[in-house]
Amino acid sequence: MDRRDFLKGTAAAGGSLLLLNACGGGSPRPVSPAPEPASAVTFSDPSLRELADVALHAARDAGASYADVRIAAYRRQLVGTREDRVEYVNDAEDRGFGVRVIADGTWGFAASARIDKDEIARVARRAVALAKANSVLQREPVRLAPVEAHQAVWNTPIRRDPFEVPLAEKVETLLGINAAALQVAGVSFCSSRMDFVREHKFFASTEGSYIEQTLHRCNPSFTVTSVDRKRGSFQTRDAYSDPQGKGYEYIEDYPWIEDARQAGEDAVAKHNARSVEPGKRDLILHPTHLWLTIHESIGHPTELDRALGLEANYAGTSFLTPDKLGTFRIGSDIVNFVAEKTAPGSLATCGYDDDGVKTMEWPIVRDGIFVDYQTTRDQAHLIDRPHSYGTSYAQSWKDVPFQRMPNLNLEPGKAPLTLAQLIADTEDAILIKGRGSYSIDHQRYNFQFGGQTFYEIKNGKVAGMLRDVAYQARTPDFWQACDAICSEDEYYVGGSFYDGKGEPGQSNAVSHGCPPARFRQINILNTDRKV
Amino acid sequence: MLSRDQAKQITDKVLAMSKADEAFVSLSGEQVTHIRFARNSPSTSGSYDQPVLSIRSTFGKRSGTARANQFDDASLAEAVRRSEELARLAPEDPEHMPALEPQTYPEVKAFFGAGDDGAVTLARGVSTCLKDAERRGVVAAGFSRMEEGFSCIANSRGLFGYHQASGAFVSETARTRDATGSGWSSTAANRAADLDYARVSQTAIDKALASVEAKPLDPGTYVTILEPACVASLLQILTWSMSARSADEGRSYFSAPGGGNRLGEKLFGDDITIYSDPQAPEAPGAPWGADGLPQARRPWIDKGTVANLSYDRYWAAKTGKPAVPGGSNTIMTGGTASLADLIASTERGVLVTSLWYIRSVDPRTLLHTGLTRDGVFLIENGAIKHPVHNFRWNDSPIAVLKNVVAMSRPERVPPRPSHSTTTVVPALKVKEFTFSSVSEAV
Predict the structure, then answer these.
(1) How confident is residue A35, by pLDDT bands cut at 50, 70 and 90?
(2) pLDDT band, very low/low/confident/very high, at A231 (cuts 50, 70, 90)
């Protein structure tokens, strides 16, 4: 079912059309893994392998027991507009390489933007020198889980290369969005933007792998603002679009004009929406919102580096300590989460991770029980896993690869259940759509989320808009309060373009698929303040 | 690192390649060395050189920007070509401002580099942290980095600026082995050799040991002492929101009811002064801001009054005001008390070490939410009584600054989790701060 069919379906079911636009242009639920690499491997440039070998040999000669190298080129284009003008058109290229080694049982890493054989050899030796210098402080030697050697090429399957799309077409789309929103009476401003990334990297390691990958992702969005001078107030509504691991086809498929008009109406309507009464209420969380709650409350605490204390100084640790593996109930028995880096169109999807591990899918929560973590090669042995799940990633040639979140998805309910049916089945609740404010503690217990729009559900019907809504909960209490999850045809993939972690800070793009779900008796705050 | 002459050779070359009506070039380079540790052992380390060239080309009122990080002639020519191609394809920008004429920039002493990569200095510092952690029986995690870099701007009207800076940072989280206590500290300096690893380590471990057996304290509004790292986080929110245009457009806390902005309005007490000054020796900042506008010592809040909002060149011209770039550092004048004095003067209150995961909740009031982290203590009768659980808080930096009752001496401290070296703030004692729920996270 594509989005437009879905919209027709929900409208026909009696809901307000844009209130119920569940699948705002996101991916359909993926049913097959990412394509296998080409059987006959031909790299785009034979010199990449020669350059990589220079790094591996130099590192070995300097005393490394393991080495890998990523020679990478990143292309990025950003176009931003507001109202009837283009604010910026930026096109960036960033090339370089990073060499990572283990020497004397200790990691070392060095990187440079100058890609030639002498520099590669120098940088490889420098990485070894750093490892050796720090090895006197090392308590236990680094151990890597075994990995197969791969020689492969993998590319994000895109229909249309965004870097080949004329600028005029992008500008026309963005200015069209702004114009559509500004046609709504009471709308004051609209800004819109597109951000495209192409990540090309050639990975080689002393395990015998040579892997070339080209990854694409996009992040289009807009924000509509309505200023009410009489009240001295303003309200905004962001697009319900989400970043995707897709090409320009996502821009072509998304119903921008429809969403922009509705966003305008929503922003204006927020001024007169009823301010929410705080207290315990049931929540129905739309997938355009729920993905972020999943990201923060399930994605991050199941990162093994957090659980082991490796992120203790920055992102934090995790309440899901290894002693809870296989026994801890984090959700009700209808709650199942799966991690993967293989779903077509998702942001973390690739063929191989930055350890050279072939990507895969594995369960994280089964029937409400926490069953596994996200791992990398240097972590797997710490929880007695025979291999890595392949979640190593570095944002750039200059950054050290480490454990980053894969796509992590809430499985749909098995029994057929549409959002319209879920609403009809709900007596008193708040429906939340879109990504709003989000904050969670450093062990991932206590969280608070806002949203873009809030609707009161009374006796099975949408009873009007609310504002000033945020909800607070404790992660296991929240997921144990989940008593309904919509089925497959409501599945939607949202995601984050900029998930931050690590020191120096690195950004990771990651998707989360989910259907709408209901949570009983969650604490609601009213966020209106006078200062 | 490129010298002034080497940088100018490149910017001259790029400007000579340009066929555009106007071109603006920025060139920067950064050498970074870093080490991370956790579980009382190094975890990762690295070093890199990061060069970046950006060129904005303009034909008439059409502009495009290209960035590249390779500086050979062919790569420079390609970057110029890409920016010009984008500019030709871009629509006319009705807000385009002509290139800035040559400017005089303040002399800023911000480079204190040792000329080496600092790996040995960082390893020695981290060794101090790791030995202390072993000796005192805690588990340490942390990060230290140093960077040396330059930035340079030039345009086709002859504007040119070159600036060098160095900086260094360390932070540590110490946790008790049973994970019931956690403490944190950080500091910034002009170079790695000046980082006080021993003090950071001692503070983090002291706080970790002092925070075990935390007791629950009911959420609510309390007299609160916010240590400087907390204040740095809150002031960052404030300074980021001080755009005149957003205010004039009615979509900012600084919008005046009925139109216009709050420039000149007295919001806070006479003792609240926040300014930026690129030449401040305690935390030097870049000598120019957006578009090459010169920085100067500039009050943002002067004795409680909104003294400046930032104006980009277009908005300044449209509203008849001088253009004002956002500051390149943030300094808040404090008091003369010590943190201990603030505690001693408090009958009942809460002491907070750092704030975490701060996000906007309502831009109209600058209401933000976040958590406390790594050391929260109940104060009674002028002394710390016992540690308490972490809180989620919902409050606004505006309300915080309105509620200040005492301040400590300011110190250079990065807003957590940033590694910024350009914030100097005091601890604040405020008469109320709103904790909305308890977090059991340690």
Answers:
(1) very low
(2) confident
A397 vs A400: CA distance, rounded Å: 8
pLDDT attached to residue A531: 86
* Residue-wise pLDDT tens digits, B94-133: 999 999 999 999 999 999 987 666 888 999 999 999 999 9
Cβ <8 Å between A439 and B369: yes
Q: Which residues of B touch A90 (CB under 8 A)?
A: 64-67
Chain A nearest C-alpha distance from B182 (Å): 10
Residues of chain B in contact with residue A468, where contact means CB-CB under 8 angstroms, are 362
Total residue length of chain A:
531
Q: How far is A129 from chain B (nearest CA, A)?
A: 10
B314-341, pLDDT tens digit by residue? 999 999 999 999 999 999 999 999 999 9
B173 and A312 within 8 Å at the Cβ level: the answer is yes
pLDDT of amino acid B113: 84
* Residues of A in Cβ contact (< 8 Å) with B170: none
How far away is chain A from the Cα of B124, in angstroms, using its nearest Cα?
Answer: 9
Contacts of A191 in chain B (CB under 8 A): none
Q: Which residues pair with A216 in a beta bridge?
A: A198
Q: Which DSSP helix (H) or strand (E) runs through A130?
A: helix A117-135
Predicted confidence (pLDDT) at residue B199 exceeds the cutoff of 80? yes
Which chain B residues touch A523 with a CB distance below 8 Å?
437
Q: Which of A304, A438, A448 to mutate to test the interface with B (most CBs of B within 10 A)?
A: A448
Task: With a cut of 50, say whether residue A74 has pLDDT above it.
Answer: yes
A331-386 pLDDT, tens digit each? 999 999 999 999 999 999 999 999 999 999 999 999 999 999 999 999 999 999 99
**Residue matched to tokens 């957090």:** A306
Residue carrying structure tokens 């990569």: B117
Q: How far is B90 from chain A (nearest CA, A)?
A: 7
A residues 219..278 contacting B (CB < 8 A)? 225, 227, 229, 232-234, 236
- Whether residues B366 and A92 touch (CB distance < 8 A) is answered with no
- Tell me the three-class secondary structure of chain B, residue by residue: CCCHHHHHHHHHHHHHHCCCCEEEEEEEEEEEEEEEEECCEEEEEEEEEEEEEEEEEEECCEEEEEEECCCCHHHHHHHHHHHHHHHHHCCCCCCCCCCCCCCCCCCCCCCCCCCCCCHHHHHHHHHHHHHHHHHHCEEEEEEEEEEEEEEEEEECCCCEEEEEEEEEEEEEEEEECCCCCEEEEEEEECCHHHCCHHHHHHHHHHHHHHCCCCECCCCEEEEEEECHHHHHHHHHHHHHCCEHHHHHCCCCCCECCCCCECCCCECCCCCCCEEECCCCCCCCCCCECHHHCECCCEEEEECCEECCCEECHHHHHHHCCCCECCCCCEEECCCCECHHHHHHCCCEEEEEEEEEEEEEEECCCCEEEEEEEEEEEEEECCEEEEEECEEEEEECHHHHHHCEEEEECCEECCCCCCCCCCEEECCEEEEEEEEEEEECCC
Which residue intervals of A273-378 are DSSP H helices? 287-294, 304-307
Q: With an 8 Å Cβ cutoff, is A313 touching chain B?
A: yes
With beta carbons less than 8 A apart as the criterion, state whether B310 and B360 touch: no
User: In angstroms, how far apart are the furthest CA atoms of chain B?
Assistant: 72
- Alpha-carbon A441 to chain mean position: 19
- In the block, tokens 């969650």 appear at A522
Residue B201, both tokens:
């380590």
Residue with tokens 């009873």: A463
Contact B433, B224 (CB under 8 A): yes
Nearest CA in chain A to B249: A227
B69 touches chain A (CB under 8 A): yes
